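Message: A physicist's question: would you kindly supply an amino acid chain plus fold tokens?
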Amino acid sequence: MTVRGEAILAELGSLPAHVRADYIRVLETVVRVAPGAWTRRRGVRPQWITLRDGDDVVVRMDSGELSKHIDWDGPRSARSFAGALREELATNRCAAVVYGDAIDSRTWGWVLPLLAGRLPGPDTAVMVDVGHRTGARSTFSFPVGYRRSPVRRLRFEEDVRAILRRAGST
């Protein structure tokens, strides 16, 4: 296992058992749905994954509610999504916002690379900001690559499912 995989295990291991179980459930959903939400032009599209009180996991694409929490004078960052996560936790047990690490190059930030003579870059990681009703909050980064085939597909560089299985068994 890589250093990043060990860091994910350490982060999950530091959480109380019930919070860790909810995080793992949400992260397993991220691993399942993020590749399908990726497009070559838009990268990993922002989406919400929520765990409701009745153990239902709900996945939905962001339809603009994140925009009211973003500092449009600077690049999007995990700090910008904190308010949105707090709002989701008012009605859900656990919530996560999923996005690609190059999200700013697909919004206002696309101008800066062009001025520097570079094209906007693709996502190199799937970012997941997870919050729990207990107050726990974490950010996970899963490096990604792109499978070279007739149709380009997003793939995780590490076996994230194996890391989450190992975290769930501890």
